[in-house]
Design a protein that fits this description.
Length: about 160
């Protein structure tokens, strides 16, 4: 689809303004018929609608493709983690240095009713609870063991 010429759009809308001023008081259908017969405004409107529909479809296809690419990258990272578990915690290669480590610890709620009120808002304030757990034990919660994290640093 070719882009819409801004000059044509401005000229068409100017013609619509003049026509509306001349035909003030006419019925809506009569005004639209006059605009369609004497200006390019409605044809330009149709072309813009075509662009919008095509762009929205392109965005949806792009989102679906992004999800597929992200899933593929996750699968590849899982394969690399499994390989690193067997080979070594750190491997230097021409494309990247790979290292396998432990991710950040997170708060796991084991008994919501036992968690002190200071950690509650509408729900438990997990960030504050995590800070407290790192400092020492909190009744009703414990620290998780961090999940395995793969770091890839491009060369």
């Amino acid at each position: 689809m070719a882009d819409i010429n801004p000059r044509k759009l401005v000229a068409a809308m100017s013609a619509v303004g003049k026509l509306k001023a001349e035909l003030a008081g006419y019925e809506h259908d009569d005004l639209l018929a006059s605009i369609e017969s004497e200006t390019d405004a409605l044809e330009l409107m149709d072309r813009i609608v075509e662009h919008v529909i095509a762009d929205e479809a392109l965005v949806e296809r792009g989102k679906a493709r992004l999800k597929r690419i992200e899933a593929r990258a996750d699968r590849h990272r899982d394969i690399l983690k499994a390989m690193m578990t067997e080979i070594a915690e750190k491997v230097e290669r021409p494309l990247a240095t790979l290292s396998l480590g432990t991710g950040p610890r997170t708060a796991i709620i084991t008994d919501q009713s036992a968690v002190p009120d200071v950690y509650w808002r509408r729900s438990i304030d997990r960030a504050e609870l995590l800070r407290a757990l790192k400092a020492g034990p909190v009744r009703g919660a414990e620290l998780s063991n961090g999940a395995s994290v793969l770091t890839i640093r491009p060369a």
